[in-house]
Amino acid sequence: MNPVTEERATSRLVRVFVGLVPVVLALLFTTLILVAVGAPPWEAYRSILAGAFESPEKIADVIAACVPLILCGAGMCITFTAGQWNVGVEGQIVLGAICATWVARNLLWPQVPVLTLMLLAGMLGGALWGALAGLLKVYGKVHEIFGGLGLNYLAQGLAIWLIFNPWKPADGATMSGTDPFPDPAWMPQLGHLRVAPLAVILALAAVAAVYFLLQGTRWGLELKALGKGFRSAFTLGVPSTPRLLVAFSACGALAGLAGAARCSARYGRMIPDIAGGQGYLSLLVALLVGYRPQWVVLVAFFFAAVGVGSPRLELNMHLDSSLGGVLRASVVLAVMLVSGWRALAARRQAQQSVQETA
Amino acid sequence: MDTDFLIQTLSSVVAASTPVVLASIGETISEKSGVINLSLDGSIALSAMSGFAVAFTTGSVTVGILAAMGVGAFIALIIAFASITLRQEQVAVGFVLTMLCTELADFLGNPFVRKPGPSVPHASIPYLSDVPIIGPILFDQNLVVYLSLLSFVAAWWWIYKTQPGLKLQGVGERPESAFARGVNVNRLRYIYTVVGGALVGLAGASYSLSIKLGWSHRHTFGIGWIALAVVIFGGWSPWRVALGCYLFGLLKALGSILQRNPAFARVPTQIFSSAPFALMIFALLLVSSEGVDRLLSLLPIRLARRVDRTIRGRSPGGLGKPFVQE
Fold it and tell me: How many helices (DSSP H) and strands (DSSP E) are in chain B?
């Protein structure tokens, strides 16, 4: 049987069940690890859940933590569609934060213009850093993984240099970042909750925009053709170089926006580890959703909940919070293995039926 | 500059380059067979942690090294299984494993952070270490360093001078032709990926048991990416890959000598810690950019061809693509 028709034949319930298999496998793996280090697994999962959802404050934190993942995950749907491994998102977040910080420190204007300018500056910084990786790829033939990673470390170095030298805080405690921004540069938060509605709205708007761009425009179609291989793009007459550069810059702009939002809404200052691995994490988000931006929000929420919940492990059980990271990465790995396994089974079945008819 | 200082510096460069050499030679072997193991950065972290943890617990450095090699080989086995048998994208699986192993190393390594532990004992080779200049640089080291020296010589000999090595090249370059000649392409790819992974594991062990002793958060910072880039820079040839590693080590040593010099005291340390990655981008630009072609075309054609062959290598034809038996 053709795997496509088989796919259609499976009922919705079965599909939901199959979709959960990787999650179960990943939980099994982390449970094994917990047992191996002699920690009670149930207690650990309960700590993570409680740490993420026990109070409105915690839920607000989870929603706030979604913002960079959604923005960068949506951005990476663009570059993935174009067939590019944009690993440089981490650095693009940093550059966005740097540019936004420059605006916040230098332009002492009222809130609305200063915030608008900060976000725009962040997008510009991220877009330029993203375009740099694209330029290295298109003109320098440097694979985007290495170009992007190299640029990530450079951006990190630049951020630390800025904080330790020209942006040194008055008290000299450079590890905690620059001096706090002047009040107008803080993104307004929802009462006492640590979530900025504006950032959330921008993130959701970004997902909608990316979805529309990829599904509803010729530009998106051309990008898909590029991603499938240069041959089909050539047949469509797609100018590949400008498309790729725009894809890199668009993703960079969203990452830069995430960086600007992080320093304006979350920290109210520039800190050395402003990207905090969010770029790499959103690469996992993008891998998990494939090219479908509509799923980014759901996956980002799951990742954010694990991220906000797992520091509780250190508090309650003296376990390292990186267990959350192990869980997230193993879910993605399990999804790959399970889908590969199903494809293999389908191939074997097809082979068998061919042999039977012959 | 006196000779003693020079010899001492070169000797420390050879020692400090050990993990990069071992990892990039391991990667060269698996990429020669057509499989990209992108998980290097995570593999090195996890094997460095496990090597140290096992050596710390058992008190035996040998057991620690073997455990690290086992970890590296096992991660490579996952990549081989996912990409060869399940036909998932190699780069995707490798990247996810990088993240997974890094986090796992942090989680499992937590009890071992900043603990003093065993290390590979120094062992100078009799007679050889007495040879002037070369002796103290190459043969007055420890066992893991000798293994790194051996690794690229052995890899070169195996790939280019033996019958099985010829098959390895065929499997990576033209899997269809190799298959037509009766070579089991996918089995060989499995084997070389795992062997390469074991070397990556050894690289991890060499880090935590010989170069930067012990374990801490982000202990092996970025070294796997450097090793992956060096494989491209070295054009998939063991000698040139090793040369690339030592060149990189030398530049790094030069950086730290400059950093200690009072004349450079005003230069921010971030420049020195970011420099390797700027160097990485620059090195890759050098070997892959078309701008270099234009520069070369200014030279007389025969010289240009020779320069091109010296500085650049071609990637194996079947690299990164699954082999489907029709």
Answer: 15, 0
Residue A53 is predicted with a pLDDT of 95
Number of domains in chain A: 1
Other C-beta atoms lying within 10 Å of the C-beta of residue B266 = 6
Interface test with A, best of B101, B281, B286 (most A CBs within 10 A): B281
Nearest chain A residue to B233, by CA: A142
Q: How confident is the model at residue B269 (pLDDT cuts 50, 70, 90)?
A: confident
The neighbouring-strand residues paired with B113 are B215
A322 vs B contacts (CB less than 8 Å): 103-104, 106-107, 110
Helix, strand or coil for residue B2? coil
**Domain, as residue range, for B167:** 3-220
In a domain, A99, yes or no: yes
Q: Which of B218-227, B241-250, B275-284 has the highest mean pLDDT?
A: B241-250
Burial class of residue B219 in the structure, from the number of CB atoms within 10 Å of its CB (0-12 exposed, 13-18 middle, 19+ buried) = buried
Report how far residue B73's alpha carbon sits from residue A119's, in angstroms, rounded to the nearest whole number: 46
What residues of B are in contact with residue A319 (Cβ under 8 Å)? 107, 110
* CA-based nearest distance B82→chain A, Å: 6
Report yes or no on B95 lying in a domain.
yes
Are the C-beta atoms of B209 and B50 separated by less than 8 Å? no
A-B C-beta contacts closer than 8 Å: 130
Q: And the tokens for A112?
A: 């609305």
Can you tell me the distance from the alpha carbon of B190 to that of B34, in angstroms, rounded to the nearest whole number? 10
Give the separation between CA B260 and CA A125, rounded to whole angstroms: 34
Can you give the CATH number for the domain in which A251 is found? 1.10.3470
Task: Confirm if B239 and B154 have CB atoms less than 8 A apart.
Answer: no
Q: Distance between CA atoms of B35 and B187, rounded to whole angstroms?
A: 12
Domain extent at residue A273: 55-334
Q: Is the pLDDT of residue A106 over 60?
A: yes
With CA atoms as reference, report the closest residue to A18 among A342, A282, A349: A342
Please say if the pLDDT value at position A7 is more than 60: no
B261 near A CB under 8 A = no
Q: Encoding tokens for residue B43?
A: 């593999």
Residue B15 maps to a domain = yes
Is residue B177 situated within a structural domain? Answer: yes
Q: Which amino acid is at A26?
A: A
- Residue identified by tokens 């405690």 is A173
Structural domain contains residue B316 = no
CB within 8 A of A270, min separation 6: which ones? A97, A98, A101, A159, A162, A163, A167, A177, A178, A263
Q: Which of B96, B266, B267, B282 to substitute to test the interface with A, most A CBs within 10 Å?
A: B96
pLDDT value of residue B248: 92
**Per-residue b/e over B4-24, b at no fewer than 16 CB within 10 Å?**
eeebebbbebbbbbbbbbbbb
A263 lies in a domain?
yes
Q: Residue B103: its chain A contacts at CB < 8 A?
A: 322-323, 325-326, 329
Alpha helices in A229-321, H assignment, sequence order: 230-236, 240-261, 278-289, 296-309, 311-317
- Quote the number of domains for chain B: 1
